[in-house]
Amino acid sequence: MLTWPSPQIPALPGRGLPIRVRDTSTGELAVAAPGPTASVYVCGITPYDATHLGHAATYVAFDLLVRGWRDAGLDVRYASNVTDIDDPLLERATATGVEWRDLAIEQTALFTEDMTALGVVPPDVFKGAVETIPDVVPAVAQMLAAGAAYRVPLEPGAGGSAPGLGDVYADLSADPSFGAVAGLERTQMLALFGERGGDPDRAGKRDPLDSLLWRRERPGEPAWDGGVLGTGRPGWHIECAVIARDGLGLPFDVQGGGVDLRFPHHEMSTSHARMLDGGLGARIHVHAGMVGLHGEKMSKSLGNLVLISVLRAGGEDPMAIRLAILAHHYASDWEWTDADLPAARARLDRWRSAVSGNGGPDAAETLAAIRTAIADDLDAPAALTAVDRWADLALAGAPTGWDLHDGDLEGAPGVISRAINALLGVRL
Ligand code: 5CA
Ligand code: ZN
Which residues are near ligand 2, the ion (C-beta closer than 5 Å)? Predict the structure, then answer.
């Protein structure tokens, strides 16, 4: 799948600090990557009704991590996916009378344009579920052969020319570490599994929580050659397990996404990865909070959406949208209101005025404060406050500070402008 163009990341004097993030499986702060390499997998969109502000906030959060790692001198590898075949996409396509492929292509294109406008650094590996099928099939076959998966018989009429080959499910009893990602009680797991795409009531499963790896062909549904599995399509969690394994190698440093994916998606995809590799999936799990609108989680299924493409079409400066997002700490749930954009526009104007002059206090302290904030669990609001402080002094007429780096003398406004761009992704 084609990714989007990379924004230019200006060089900064000095080096960033090691970044600590909150690992949601332990609740503790942990160094996100010990180095010298750093790898992250962030769950991508299911391409319908994308990209809303909640999606954008999640990708901007992990963009801070990628930028911070690069600033700290790590060799970063970033992988992500597009769930371009799954039940919700097919349901939406059927409901609106659009071909599912057209819906996926159009929405993925909008997403990549939104990410470009918001200055999000693109993933190095960006794969769709459909193009990953040739890799998913042998992975599922491997799990079957190892006794970590089993077949469940089909209802009459399913399975195309091989109705005797059932759907394939992961056998949770083959994974003693299952449950370590979210740390939930079984009753909580059962409830969430049913709410978030699982099928606890499917007859013939060994455990209601066992999750689908390969769905056999059904009348009216798209299906692909699955070799020994029979025609069908991949389950959701195995898609991310395989893309992460092949794109990053196992184990990798950080598995990320919104907190709605903590269970079952990240629990299951980590379990699948463990069963494929015999070891670990991700070392650390990091989750962004949910952005809400009118008291509810912003979600495609509820339809209470603010779309980035609609804001852009209305002439909104994408950098104001980005600043509005950065004003909230990524890990907390927050509510989008009418006040967010005007406040972000005012801040952007002020910063632009401040770096347009020749004056301003020495940049070193502010650059250090931004780096410290990012290293402390990606604390963007604290970074914005540090820039605000510098801008206030600059606009009040503080004398010019100069920074010497690599033998060049650079004025404080230049250093601040580059720091805002490189670390926060805001182009002034
Ligand atoms: N394709 C799957 C992941 S493999 C999926 O969940 N797609 S999605 O389009 O529903 O969501 C894309 C990303 O945005 C996920 O990381 C999800 O956790 C995050 N997300 C969805 N809604 C919100 C929200 N309201 N606030 C913050 N993040 C959100
Ligand atoms: Zn995923």
Answer: 43, 240
